[in-house]
């Protein structure tokens, strides 16, 4: 089952995240999908589509590179690098034009070959620093 889950995750990254094909959500994501990140929880394919649209608005050239993908049982863990240029509103911040490179990880659990829930952590401090929205004190 692990190799099936890894293949589903790779297709999700290639087709949905990088390929911008939200129609693939029906095939790859369970109707009971739940997304969690610090301070955030979204439910269903519609919630995921809205989240992805928000990222695309802020970073139209957003790309996700798979750094490592491991699986076991009904889950995968993906380490990734996100790159993009800040060209749209992000959490109330106007576009900066800055190019970012941010690392993150997501644990995905699968049911019947589809992603049913995810926990994601992104290096938000690095993102805010690269956008010039947060400075580190000496």
UniProtKB/TrEMBL annotation:
Gene3D superfamilies recorded: 3.10.450.50
Pfam families in alphabetical order: SnoaL
Source organism, top-level taxon: Bacteria
Gene Ontology terms describing biological process: polyketide metabolic process
Name this polypeptide is given: Ester cyclase
């Amino acid at each position: 089952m692990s190799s099936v889950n890894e293949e589903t995750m790779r297709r999700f990254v290639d087709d949905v995240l990088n390929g911008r094909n939200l129609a693939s959500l029906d095939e790859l994501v369970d109707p009971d999908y739940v997304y969690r990140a610090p301070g955030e929880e979204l439910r269903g394919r519609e919630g995921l589509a809205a989240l992805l649209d928000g990222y695309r608005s802020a970073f139209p050239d957003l790309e996700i590179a798979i750094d490592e993908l491991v699986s076991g049982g009904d889950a995968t863990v993906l380490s990734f690098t996100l790159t993009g240029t800040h060209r749209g509103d992000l959490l109330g911040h106007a576009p900066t034009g800055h190019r970012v490179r941010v690392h993150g990880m997501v644990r995905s659990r699968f049911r019947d070959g589809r992603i049913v829930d995810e926990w994601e952590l992104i290096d938000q401090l690095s993102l805010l620093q690269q956008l010039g929205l947060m400075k580190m004190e000496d």
